[in-house]
Every structure is written in structure tokens, then in C-alpha cells.
Amino acid sequence: MAQYAAPGQDGSVVSYEPRYDHWIGGEYVKPAKGQYFENPSPVTGQTFTEMARGTADDVERALDAAHGAADAWGRTSVTERAIVLNRIADRMEANLEKLAVAETWENGKPVRETLAADLPLAIDHFRYFAGAIRAQEGSLGELDDDTVAYHFHEPLGVVAQIIPWNFPILMATWKLAPALAAGNAVVLKPAEQTPASIHLLMSLIADLLPPGVVNIVNGFGFEAGKPLASSPRVAKVAFTGETTTGRLIMQYASENIKPVTLELGGKSPNIFFDDVSAADDDFYDKALEGFTMFALNQGEVCTCPSRALIQQGHYADFLAAAVKRTEAVKQGNPLDTDTMVGAQASNDQLEKILSYLDIGRQEGAKVLTGGARAELPGDLAGGYYVQPTIFQGDNAMRIFQEEIFGPVVSVAPFADFADGIKIANDTLYGLGAGVWTRDINTAYRAGRAIQAGRVWTNCYHAYPAHAAFGGYKQSGIGRENHKMMLEHYQQTKNLLISYSPKAMGFF
Amino acid sequence: MNHAQPTGSAAPTAGPARPPVSRVELTAAAEELIRSLHGRHGSLMFHQSGGCCDGSAPMCFPAGEFRTGSSDVQLAALSVEGVAEPITFWMSASQFERWKHTHLTVDVVPGRGSGFSLEAPDGVRFLIRSRLLTSDELAQLP
How far apart are alpha carbons A462 and A124 in whole angstroms? Predict the structure, then answer.
């Protein structure tokens, strides 16, 4: 076991600045209105830095900088852009521990996750898109002997990106890497719950990027997000969050006839067929871990496997083993490398989860373990901790229908394949799903029958680059984490060329 | 457009006056915050979110900022002392199908975000607390 010192304290590997301004045009710029907001760590509830409170004037300034940089950046060769992305990855890798500890302090997630997942994935993501843009090709269609249609990829120009708070650096990377690879300049607004770690990252990589290619405006949705998302000066808006804001962003974008990509969450089913329990072996152990994945990142994952559907033949035994596995989860100081579950990202998030524990009980769901706020000692007493919780209930209950975004799973049995798929698909969302079985035919048929963009099959919560991630139904539009995201950041230029000297014959 | 859908006032019932049955109510703290936001932003509306991150949070906007349509249901038109016009409370119809057995109370808690809801800069957040509607209430609601 090791415990990192909190950022800024003696012996810490990293420190935050006491204040962050906007990052615009390659330098820090004070907010036009001179206002700042406090940024508390969810680990203790104590403020550790303050952030510029952006408004429309700041957004305009960032858009000026982005437009000033976009043309030159868009004309750089893909080789040059790939080199920049690879250098960003190298710089992050050299500072991985610092960034991981900083991310944990801002978000509340366990440092063993930031060390082993958030940062390594972000680093690989830049490398992936460095490779993908080098390998991308346009196309040509030979329409007839004289006529050829060429298709070129061109950058959109200046794009807006609004980042969520659950994986602040990784989610920023999912949006930045393809946008930059494709040759766009970016104005990015981090979430107001986690506005600082992206600045720490930028302080490490600023010298690698031409000024104005990446601009960061902090602030609140209505004050800074709206002027950004509704600006006629952005060519595209990318957003990860929830449905009402997703719709609002689409409404703003529709005023300017601009495209959006949206990732709006889910209520992901995790399906365990009877044959999982056919043997007490490595696979059974892996499936139990797959169940317990609902607690990863405190459940603050858009694809949290928050509905566990267990076939009735092994329901009681598998669930009993799953409860035992969940009760072995170690909750505590997120800076401790043994900690598996840390703090929820904010107080309102904590309160929301507690309100779901309440309505779950009222609807008659049975708490099998957890079910309350976790009271931790010392400095952590002011932090936002929730016990990993297992509910047993029915898919019509609200705890089965809404993404609680906490370490809470709702469990129900199913009879057979058709019943399992029916329950799995009885949701407004379709982002992720899990299927666990030893039968390859069942796995294939279930994966194809579930209406979700990602079906983890005999695994869960893996997020490698080069596996497309995005939603069906109300979960959003677009596919991140894959080279196909490049096209969401590109225009198609068609040159339709005639190599014939002859007139067409109409006039 | 489902404007004819349930609103804050119940259908008239025979017999002695009873408080009208509503699907949505406000805590005193929520009313206070609404008065404050109304003073700064004018007429207001709520749209209940779903999905991840700040999903499940009631989003408060200037009235008309969020364009509702045929896929939305108005659950209530809430009266707040000191605010002339009622505050409409909306939800997507598909979400309402899964929430309609519950009564919602809009409360306020300290918090940081998010979405485009108006109160976020104040360091507070509207929050939904829920309870089951009674069979008596359900019978009175349209």
C-alpha cells in the first residue's frame, strides 16, 4: 500500500496553481468580468483552487484565437500533426503519476484507476489518432472513362467541445485527439465540477501546440457553455452529458445548421446466463468481477453496468457470490493505492444518489448490501462517499430506468434468452451492455439482439482505442474512440472532374 | 404537443375543498431560489433531464430557452409567491412513462453544476426528491 500526499502538500508529486485563468491563444487570459469560482476536492470537500468564470466575451476571445490558428493548423501535413499528438502522448507518459494524482484529487476517483486506466488510456488515445490520421485516405470513384470523383477529407475549422466531469482528462482526450488529428482548432469547456486538471495537462503540453489551436474557457453552462454551443462561429459541437442539455445543444446547433455529436448516457444491462456458473473457475471469477464493475469510478460512468440481469437457474447462488464480492470492495482515501472506490465527484451528485436510494426503497426494492452514505474518518469526513449498493427489484422501478451515476446496481432475474433480451432492451437508452456466457452462440445472438452501441462480451469496462463507442436510442449520436470519429470532425470535399474535352451536348 | 396533459391542478372533485393533487411541488428553499432567479432572469421553466452525468436533475431555464415539442409532457404549472407567472415543469414523454407513478419535489442542495441550469453559478443545485403517488392521488390525476 502507498498513499500519495494531496496535491500541494509536502511530499506531493504535483501541485495545482491557486488560480486558473482561461487558456486562450497560447496564454492565460483573465476573465472579462473578473469573476472566479471555487473548485473543491470531493476527497475532502475543501477548495483547492479557483477558476475563471467565463462569459460570452471570453468565449468570443477564444473563438478569435481559434479562428486565427485554424487555417494554418488545418494545412499542416498529417505527418506534422501526428508528430504533435505523439509528443503530447510522450509528455503525458513522462508525467503520468503527476496527472493521475491531480486527476484523483479533482474528481475523487481512486488513484489506482487514474494510474492504470484514465491516464494510460488517454496517452494511447493520442497515439491512436496520430496513427489513424496518417493511415486515413480519401477515395476516388471512376465514374466512366472520362470522369472521376475524388473525395478529400478537410477539417471543419473551429469546433466546440463540452467535457463531462467523470473522466475529465480522458473525456477531453476522446474529443481533442480526433479533432486535432483532423486539423481543427478547438474551444473546449471543461465541466465546472472538474475544471482544473485539463489546465494542469495544458501546462505540460502547451509548448507542443501552436497558440490558438486549443483554447480552454472555464465556467458554467448557461454563462459559458451556451455562448459556445450557440455560436455561429463554431463548425460543430461535441458534448457528453445528459439528455436535456443534449437536446438544448442540438437546438442551438440547429439555429446555425451545424452538426453535433452527443453522448448522453445509458442504463446498461449486464446479463449473466445460467452457464456462467457451470464451473467454479477463472471465468466464473471474471464474471463476478464483471458484476462488481458497477462500482468502478464510483458508478460515475455513462456505461455503468447498473442493471444486472441474472438468469433464474443460478440467480440465488450467483447473486450471493456477487454480494460477497461487492462487500470485499475497499472504500477509502482515493489517494491510497489500495482503495477501489473513492468519492463521488460533487455534493449534488452525492445528494442525487441518496435520493435514488430513497425512492428505490419506497418502490419496494430490497437492499442486499450498502444503501447509505459512507462515513469516513478524519479529513475525509467532508468528502462525498457512498457505500457500494446492490438493490434487488423489478425493471419497471425507477432505479432500473435512470442512470443513478453512483455505485449502485439494480438486480433482477430473467427466465430465458428472450426474456433476458426483452428486459435488457426495456430502457430509453442504448449505450453499453454486458453479456456473460460460456456458449459462443448465445453470446453472439445476445450481442446482436441488444440495442446498444457497445456490447461487452465476457468482459466489461474496457475502453481501448479502436473500438467504437456511442449510443443507440436516446444515448446520443456519433461514435468516439475509433477512427470513424475522424469523419465527425471532417468535411468531405468532392472534386468531380471530367477529363473529356468534348461538350456535354445540351447547349 | 401534449399541453393538455397533466398540469398542476387536478380535475375538480365533488365534496369539500381539498388541496389540488399535483405531480410536482417545490420546497421552501426551491421557491426562494426561484424568486431569486426570476429576479435576475425573468420567467422560468424546468425540464427534467435523464441520462448520465447530471442526468436526473431538473434543469431550470429562462422560459422558452428550451423548446418543448410533441415529445414532451408538461407535468405542472407551479405557483410561487412573488412570481407572477407559473413555472412550467416539463419532461420528455418517454421518460414520463417511466416516472408517472412518482411524485416529484424540487429541492435545493449545495453543489457545483451542471448542464445549462441557471442556478449553478450560485453554488447550489436543484434536486429531485421522489415519493410514490398514492392510489388516491393517481385516481385524481388526469
Answer: 13
A contact residues 145-204, partner B, Cβ 8 Å cutoff? 164-166, 191-193
Helix, strand, coil proportions of chain A in percent (round to 5)?
A: 40, 20, 35
pLDDT at A503 over 50: yes
Mind telling me how many Å the CA of A352 is from chain B's nearest CA?
A: 7
Q: Which pTM was predicted?
A: 0.96
The Cα A168–Cα A125 span in angstroms is 14
Residue among A345, A281, A354, A272 nearest A313 (CA): A272
ipTM of model: 0.95
Residue A422's beta-bridge partner residues?
none
Mutation target for A interface from B33, B40, B47, B52: give the one with most A CBs within 10 A.
B52
Task: Give the tens place of pLDDT for each residue, A189-228.
Answer: 999 999 999 999 999 999 999 999 999 999 999 999 999 9
Q: How far apart are CA A66 and CA A59, in angstroms?
A: 10
- B116 to A225: CB separation less than 8 angstroms, yes or no: yes
Confidence of residue B114 (pLDDT cuts 50, 70, 90): confident
How many percent of chain A have pLDDT more than 90? 100
* Neighbour count for residue A145 (Cβ, 10 Å): 8
What is the separation, in whole angstroms, between the first and last Cα of chain A? 83
- Please give the C-alpha separations between residue A375 and each of A332, A359, A379, A386, A387, in angstroms, as whole numbers: 10, 21, 11, 8, 9
Q: Report the C-alpha gap between B39 and A450 in whole angstroms.
A: 48
Mean pLDDT within A407-427: 98
Nine cell digits for residue A64: 478569435
Record: contact A222-B117, CB cut-off 8 A: yes
Cα–Cα distance between A142 and A149 in angstroms, integer? 6
Tell me the pLDDT tens digit for each residue of A55-76. 999 999 999 999 999 999 999 9
pLDDT of B124 > 90? The answer is yes
Residues of A in contact with B123 (CB under 8 A): 37-38
Cell triple for B132? 410514490
pLDDT grade, residue A1 (50/70/90)? low
- Which of A357, A362, A422, A367 is CA-nearest to residue A392? A367
